[in-house]
Amino acid sequence: MSTLISNVPEGPIKDKWTNHKNNIDLVNPANKRLIDVIVVGTGLAGASASATLAELGYNVKSFCFQDSPRRAHSIAAQGGINAAKNYQGDGDSIHRLFYDTVKGGDYRSREANVYRLAEVSGNIIDQCVAQGVPFAREYGGLLDNRSFGGVLVSRTFYAKGQTGQQLLLGAYSAMNRQIGRGKIKMYNRHEMMDIVKVDGKARGIIARNLVTGEIERHAAHAVVIASGGYGNVFFLSTNAMGSNVSAAWKIHRKGAYFANPCFTQIHPTCIPVSGDHQSKLTLMSESLRNDGRIWVPKKLEDVKAVREGKLKPTEIAEEDRDYYLERRYPAFGNLVPRDVASRAAKERCDEGYGVNATGEAVYLDFAASIERYGKEQAHVRGLDENDKAVVQKLGKEVVKAKYGNLFQMYYKIVDQDPYETPMMIYPAVHYTMGGVWVDYNLMTTIPGCFAIGEANFSDHGANRLGASALMQGLADGYFVLPYTIGDYLSDDIRTGAISTNSPEFDQAEAEVKAQIDALINNKGTQSVDYFHRKLGKILWNQCGMSRNAEGLQQAIVDIQKLREDFYQNVCVPGSANEFNEELAKAGRVADFLELGELFAKDALERAESCGGHFREESQTPEGEALRDDVNFAFVSAWEYTGQPSEAVLHKEDLTYENIELKTRSYK
Amino acid sequence: MRLTLKIWRQENTHAEGAMVTYPIDNISPDMSFLEMMDVLNKELIEKGESPVAFDHDCREGICGMCSMFINGEAHGPDRNVTTCQLHMRKFKDGDTIHIEPFRAKAFPVIRDLVVDRSAFDRIQHAGGFISVNTSGNTQDANATPISKHAADTAMDAATCIGCGACVATCKNSSAMLFVGAKVSQYALLPQGQVEAADRVQHMVDQMDLEGFGNCTNTGACEVECPKGISLENIARMNRELLKAKLL
Amino acid sequence: MAQLFQSSIGRKVAMALSAFFLMVFLLQHFAINSLSVINPDAFNEVSHFMGTNPVVQFALQPVLIFGVLFHFMMGFILDFKNRKANGKSYVKYNGAANAKWASRNMILSGLVILGFMALHFVDFWFPEMNTKFIQGDWSGTAEGVEGLRYYEELRHKFVNPYRVGAYALAFVFLALHLNHGFTSAFQSVGSTWGRKKLLQTIGLIYAYVIPVGFIGIALFHHLTH
């Protein structure tokens, strides 16, 4: 096993990024016009990178599979974006944001990258405000903040419950300006099918026009992958239906190492699966846990009656309820971090206390908050605090003002009124901290191929804090990549335009066409979704919220079998030369079937519990996660060698010079 | 639930399309409309027929990708939801459901229920932005206070998801709610003032060029908009254009 | 300015401005007609003034004719353009689910009003033009009529019940047209007043009181003849 070179600059952590920027090579404006860059994906990272690179003068070609860049899944982020602005004067600082992020990531992220992220976070807010993002404001006209994810300061900027949407529209507007000027060529409804390497360097991609089915060659001096995370390997996740790993996986197959694939965030508050027909899961913002109490019945007979519809949750007496988070974690209670809350819900449901028909749901109850707020309001307004009707009415008004849109969303989906009966929630796959390995310059192990945003692995370690994904996507795209890519491209100013008429492009295109033909001509019996659902089940059961060696080994075998089955029996209707969503899905699922195996392999290799990765073998006597810093303080970066089972592990050792490694405790 | 679906099938932009009837059974009222479509497509694939093409992505009502004109209404009979948030419990056992693509000359059909809404993108290329570089060298975010009311109103306009329901539902295929929302967001914020006159003119010119119809203020768009974008945004755009042309 | 009216919004504004003008005219017309019920002599006086005053005849009247023609022509042009923007029509379109009938059928109510205008011109305007400009009679008197002729001519027109019926029907459509048009015009010129309760109420009053008033006047003359 070799050691990876992270290219982290020398010097004190505070000065690393500044010094690095001062010392790296630049490309002069006249030469930038001669250089082409491909950006795959138009989420926060991709859109911000495309816009900035185009502003700098590079010729940018952007690709997205959606019908418009604005639809990338960053748009669905609800809560907010962190930035160390300290506008609230509550003691926030770059160092504190850096510390919180490293600690929240359970000490499995790269210090220097996280520090840089915290350092540029303030700029993101300035930038977004300048481009017209309507962040929430206070009556005095200044920006408002909320607190998030259990940190001790209020540093989260937000735009109602649609922060991701507004930030993406901001980045998209910056793109629009450059598209209008002709500096970005936008390829909507296009999917990257493979990367093309010439002399070992990334020099272009093969893309498929999803409307006509045409296979296209696109050349460039550098390729940026901003294609997001791979949560959809679980089939059911809060990701969009089209979110996929393919771009990241294709570059992995061509030489980019894939880091920490087993680090997945499972968000505790999602609307539970209602049946086999379910196609995706919907997140309910983490903020609900501020006022909701999580519980299941204490008695199994009550559980049975609830499931059969004979007993309503509101009829269960207080003493027959198990507020298990408050019981297990008296200090943090319902506000423990995401990974801890998720595991605790699973533990109760595994014991048979799940409260819906599928047995996978717990209650999130607002009755106590409604009563508390109602009494407060009654007192303030001089009304009778013992009048139940008044208290209920006032309390519901308060809750509505705070969470009205979420309650409405829940009502639309579940058809139950959460003001009257507790919500049912269950954890769901939400975000993947793992991704393509990159160095400090965000370059993968393929020279000239960069990975940014959720697609890379760098900043969140083994667990991501709330409101940090948006921050990382925009930091990478607006403020990091545009500098670091220049360092690489400064060698390319005399290269001239890259031709697509080369044996390398011929070969890549032939491989892509061969795979498409194989899928189309397979004429099997099962739909693509059939395999995807099966893959999701395997991963959810064996590589979900808790994992053990035996299950992981079984998962590897099962996935291998499923992959064989897929290539023998998948049915892709229609032809290659038309709008064919089944074909697009088949290609994506084929990649998920390989990633899934690497995922399990990585989880098996990492015999410790950290962040979202919980190994049953590595826990305290009380059942809490037990990290092993002696043996596992490294990044697992996997090299593809032909089969996921034969992937080679490379380790990047994680050293912490500025933060002391500690055990997280929420008791 | 047992339903009869009448769905617009059209192989490609140039092909003639037609409504085709599909009976479907065993639909749970808890399914979303698109999950019902998934069931249909699974059956079609298993029968060796071509599945119905439709746009969808986030399935939580924010990406704006899903479209569909259901029983004569954009995003179906429910209010303030996109098709992906519409649930089958809004229909009755035995219902016949008409499903058509969003229709407008500026939204050509790509296949079945999938339409090309890139006209919306081109309108935004024409001026849907504030010309500020992404260098990060801008002034501090709190340097210019913005009244809460202006920020909130701008936010209300900015929640538009660009799905095109306004165009689809408008008897004139007018895009003014969409363009009005975008113009409004910037017009309401001080950052957007500098190039306000150019912005509204360029965007309206492009809107006309794309072949969208004119607004006759029926208000249908506001009712069908899944995000409840207000008609006031159209009034504001009209005002902005008048200001730009006359002052 | 010319550039303004080449844009979709400019045309809307033009439509609204001509609508405001016509609404003011209508109010004025209604006020004068009301006199025929309250005070026939005053009606005759005012009618004679309007019919012979050079400012009204040679300045305001052409402007009015232009306004009417413009509103109709623009209405047709916009409707044509809007239909063109539609592309293929829906198999099933539930317009009633989201908009009032009146707002969706302005072209229809407009056409009925246009038809009424034709009748109205044949009844009043053409004879007036004939009398004044071809026969050169600006006296305002007629054979067999004592004093000014306008009141008698008016009464005479409402003898025929079919004509009264046609007038009434046309005014029903005018009410529908105004029902949407009044507030819509405000919206078109960029004012949000059209969405305020007060103006909506005024609009409703205007849209129904004036047409009902006109019908009332016609009925009054028909029944008291």
Overview of this protein structure:
The complex is a heterotrimer of chains A (667), B (247) and C (225). Chain A is of the alpha+beta class and 667 residues long. Chain A contains 18 helices and 19 strands. Among the domains of chain A are: 158 residues, Alpha-Beta Complex (Flavocytochrome C3, Chain A, domain 1), CATH 3.90.700; 151 residues, Fumarate reductase/succinate dehydrogenase flavoprotein-like, C-terminal domain (Methane Monooxygenase Hydroxylase, Chain G, domain 1). In chain A, the strands form five sheets. In chain A, strands 5-2-1-9-17 form a five-stranded parallel β-sheet, with helices on both faces. In chain A, strands 11-15-14-12-13 form a five-stranded antiparallel β-sheet. Chain A has a four-stranded antiparallel β-sheet with strand order 16-10-18-19. The radius of gyration of chain A is 25 Å and the shape is globular. Chain A starts with 15 loop residues before the first helix and ends in a 14-residue tail after the last strand. With 247 residues, chain B is of the alpha+beta class. Chain B folds into two domains: 108 residues, Ubiquitin-like (UB roll) (Roll); 118 residues, Alpha-helical ferredoxin (Fumarate Reductase Iron-sulfur Protein, Chain B, domain 2, Orthogonal Bundle). In chain B, 35% of the residues lie in helices and 11% in strands. Chain B has eight helices and seven strands, in the order E-E-H-E-E-E-E-E-H-H-H-H-H-H-H. In chain B, a hairpin with a 2-residue loop joins strand 6 and strand 7. Chain B is elongated, with a radius of gyration of 20 Å. In chain B, 61% of the residues are buried. The mean pLDDT of chain B is 96. Chain C is globular and about 60 Å long. Chains in contact: A-B, B-C. At the A-B interface, helix 3, helix 5, helix 6 and helix 12 of A face helix 1, helix 2 and helix 3 of B.
